[in-house]
Amino acid sequence: MKRPVFLALAAMWAGCAAPRPQPAAQIPPAAAGANFELSSYEVVGTPEEDTLEYVQVFLDGRLQGRTEVAAKSRPKLWLGRIPEGNHPMRFEVWDSTGGAPGVRRPEELQPRERFIRVEPGLKTSAVLRFSEQGRRSLLSITYEPRPR
């Protein structure tokens, strides 16, 4: 009798200690004729720092959309249709722990607003990478032919 109880308890303890797989990040639906793609992620030092976040996208001071909520270290994607030309764009990072609506990071931890050019017939891709606990950001822009 003691052995089955011990085996059941051992199995239960082993199940508690096992790492739980994180759900795959959901990719938001692409805007019709999307010509802009934002991918954002953060380099984290420990699993405890890998909390949930999302990024809001502003164009000419107006909210255009946001990425899905995912762990900091996972790429978060936003696809949108932006008018051709040179536009001031701002990306706001929001921490969203425990399913809360989110808390905007302090201004000194936000990437600065930049002008981004959207060329006719090309897809503009922006990769926003954070490091040093969000204190440093790097924005890379690339252009590639847009599929028809």
Describe the protein in words.
- This protein is mostly beta strands.
- It has a domain at 47-127: Immunoglobulin-like, CATH 2.60.40.
- It has 1 helix and 10 strands; from the N terminus they run αββββββββββ.
- It has one helix at 2-17; strands at residues 36-42, 52-59, 62-66, 70-71, 76-80, 85-95, 103-104, 114-118, 122-131, 136-145.
- Strands 2, 3, 4, 6, 7 and 8 form a 6-stranded antiparallel β-sheet that branches.
- A hairpin with a 2-residue loop joins strand 2 (52-59) and strand 3.
- It starts with a helix and ends with a strand.
- The model is unreliable at 14-28 (pLDDT under 50).
Give the topology, please.
Blueprint: H1 2-17, E1 36-42, E2 52-59, E3 62-66, E4 70-71, E5 76-80, E6 85-95, E7 103-104, E8 114-118, E9 122-131, E10 136-145
Parallel strand pairs: 1-9
Antiparallel strand pairs: 1-5, 2-3, 2-4, 2-6, 6-7, 6-8, 9-10
How would you sum up this structure in a few lines?
The chain has 148 residues and is mainly beta. The chain has a domain of 81 residues: Sandwich (Immunoglobulin-like), CATH 2.60.40.
